Input
Amino acid sequence: MTDIMFAWSALGGDPGPLDRVTTVARAGSLQARLPVRELARSCVGACALAAAELGARRSGLDAVPEVRVEDGAVEIAFRSERELSIDGRQPVSFAPLSRLWRTADGWVRTHANYPHHRARLLSALRLPEDAPVEDVAARLAERPALEVEETVYGAGGLAVALRTPGQWAAHEQSAALSERPLVERGRLDSAHARVLPRLEGSPLLPAAGLRVLDLTRVLAGPVATRTLALLGADVLRLDAPWLSEDPELHADTGLGKRSARLDLTTDRKTFEELLAAADVVVTGYRPGALDRFGLSPEALAERRPGLVVAQVSAWGAYGPWAGRRGFDSLVQVATGIAAIEGSAERPGALPAQALDHGTGYLLAAAVLRALTEQSYEGHGRVVRLALARTAAWLTDGIDRGDAGEAGEAPDDAADSRLGERDSAIGRLRYALPPVSFTGGPVDWARPPGLWGTDAPRWV
Output
């Protein structure tokens, strides 16, 4: 329970409800050198407890509903993009140029799943757009890893040199992150206490009636908003018309949501109408990237007092890398995780994109706790998390857990943790939600639709 206690404290939670949490351990879950199972369990447990707390508040219950965290369900959920199948076909997680490469003096990890990132990577390496993998490998093998990192980032692409834990600890970005809490929490205004309508009926949906603007992309932010949708929120994801999205990734993270395209440079009226009725705004872009559209937390709260603004980024909002793009796989390589999980011959990786998923559940928990706090104290709220800060918790702050209060579950229930349903995308087989509390939902109310095809308006 120590690690969930830390997470719950970072969220500002009172320790009293922690005795409502029960863990069902499973041997071999999320095996790694680092305590990935404990991180995953703590993040999901804290999220479920935050949901149960808000549900109790809105339902007038005398006690917070019991929370059950099952390692088996958590593991499958943390691998949801890998467990997904569409019409019996499993998606490919990474594009050919998203991988580890040998360099003249070590290793570098690139990310090129999106066409514009692929184009920038090849441009930085002075290779044609149709360059084969072999040409990229040859070009990278000629250059030092840190040089590749700076050159590609300078061109707007994504590449990170492999670092050991010691090398990362000596980096300025690591120092900046070490000064920040796991979950940053602040007040934006002096709005009155939020009046939340009383909940009736079953299942218990703590976020029912709340409207969430989802301005996030791969993967932590969409996991958070997918979780808020599970809990009853009306989640509307907005993307710029010129950006592309992997339809298979959307099939995984779009459960329970609607998805629209909106050009903030030409259709501000529609956005302002959405904002005026929103309760929560979640952003997943680089810190400051949306400020020019008036989407900083302060600017949003000025136009919509009492708003909860949640932000997630790769490297955090401070330090020399604050403005850099990033993804889970890149953060693992930069922070020493890949070195820890690898061998003398090759860097390794975690058994899931645990930084993305863990941070996503913590972000959802932070939103839920902010809403609970607002119901007592008022004030607009801002919460911030970063994949690299979650990585620091994994590498330096979590101990291996015990067996769990409810003993160990058998390893034969994987199919029961997967759901199946028809959708506009096809027949889906997907990971069921791991967030579980007495009386709560067991699945999303709606399947994902086609990306970007919903109208930009509230239900």
